Amino acid sequence: MEVSLAGGATGISHPLRSWLIPPRRIAGKTYQGECVVARVRHVSYQQQSTIYGSSMGVFGVSDRGTGFVAGGGGFVDTVHRGVVSVVLEDEAGRHVTEELPASVSLLDDGVVRLDRINGHLIAATNLTGRQGRIVLLGPSVFIDGIGFTRLHGVLMVATVMMAGQMLSDHPFRGAALTAACAALPLLRYRRIQAAKRQRDRLKDYMVEVMS
C-alpha cells in the first residue's frame, strides 16, 4: 500500500491510508467497518436550511356577507445547520467529495479520518486540528427501536383486570383470559429486549471501528 504524508500548520504528519475492520454479524445482518485517513484538498463552508411544520388551509362559505371562514392555523419554522463540503484525496490519489458538519473545522491541506459502517459515515476526526472525534450516527440508525403501542397498553391493563378472575369461581377461564391478553405484550417485550441487545452489540462494534 502506498503511503504519503501530509502535515498541517502544526507540522504534524499523518500517513494517508485506509483499512477494513473485521466484519461483525448481528441479527442475521453483516456489518463491515472501514476507516480512511485522507488529505483535504478543498473546503467550502455553507449554511444548510431545513423548513418544517404544518399549516391548515382556509375553508368555509360566504354568501352576501353571511357565512363563516375558518382555518389558516399551524406553524412553519426553519432550522439552520452549518456544513462543510470537502474534496478529499486518499493514499492512491483518488478524489472524493464528502459533506460534514461545520464543527469538524477542516482547512485546506488538513488531514481527516472518516469511519464508516456499510458505507454510512459514522464519525469524523480532524487529525491536523487535534480535535476529538465527532460521532455522526448511532446504532439506532441501523437497528430501529421498538416500543409498546396503544394496543399493547390496553392489553396490559386487560391482563391485570383478568388476573383477578383467577380468584373467582372459574379460575381456569380467568387464567386462559389472562394468558390471551398477556400474549401480545409479552411477545412485544421480547422483541424490545432483543433489539436492545442487538443495538448494544452494534454499539460495541462501532467503538471498535472508531478506535
Can you characterise this structure?
With 211 residues, the chain is an alpha+beta fold. Helix content is 26%, strand content 45%. It contains two helices and eleven strands. It has helices at residues 150-163, 171-210, and strands spanning 5-7, 13-15, 17-26, 29-55, 58-63, 66-71, 74-89, 95-101, 111-117, 120-126, 134-135. The strands form three sheets. Strands 3, 4, 7, 8, 9, 10 and 11 form a seven-stranded antiparallel sheet that branches. α1 crosses α2 (171-210).
Rg from C-alpha positions?
Answer: 28 Å
Poorly predicted parts:
1-5
**What proportion of the residues form beta strands (DSSP E)?**
35-45%
Number of helices: 2
Distance between the termini: 21 Å
Describe the secondary-structure layout.
Layout: E1 5-7, E2 13-15, E3 17-26, E4 29-55, E5 58-63, E6 66-71, E7 74-89, E8 95-101, E9 111-117, E10 120-126, E11 134-135, H1 150-163, H2 171-210
Antiparallel strand pairs: 1-2, 3-4, 4-7, 4-9, 5-6, 7-8, 9-10, 10-11
Helix pairs in contact: 1-2
What distinguishing features does this structure have?
211 residues; alpha+beta; 26% helix; disordered N terminus
Short structural description:
With 211 residues, the protein is an alpha+beta fold. 26% of the residues lie in helices and 45% in strands.
